[in-house]
Amino acid sequence: MATVTISPKYQITLPAEVRQALGLHPGEKLLVEVVGGEIRLRPWRPLVRQLLRELLQAYPEEAEAVGKITRHDAVGYIRKLRKG
């Protein structure tokens, strides 16, 4: 089991073997929770719906093009997701 040290700014560095085992990369987010007096960290993986919404907002023209190529109304589908 690896150990980490808390810096003066309350930061920790994850050991390389932990990062590699979980496939973590710089900039990724971790969920942090306290369970039974222990700190639990786990990768935050956004829901597909959330990713689709963000992609539509960032790349509306590309989303529409994908819909035309696949003959699937991706834009309409994502708009429905936005509403509820």
UniProtKB/TrEMBL annotation:
<feature type="domain" description="SpoVT-AbrB">
    <location>
        <begin position="1"/>
        <end position="46"/>
    </location>
</feature>
<dbReference type="InterPro" id="IPR007159">
    <property type="entry name" value="SpoVT-AbrB_dom"/>
</dbReference>
<dbReference type="Pfam" id="PF04014">
    <property type="entry name" value="MazE_antitoxin"/>
</dbReference>
<keyword id="KW-0238">DNA-binding</keyword>
<protein>
    <submittedName>
        <fullName>AbrB/MazE/SpoVT family DNA-binding domain-containing protein</fullName>
    </submittedName>
</protein>
<dbReference type="InterPro" id="IPR037914">
    <property type="entry name" value="SpoVT-AbrB_sf"/>
</dbReference>
<dbReference type="GO" id="GO:0003677">
    <property type="term" value="F:DNA binding"/>
</dbReference>
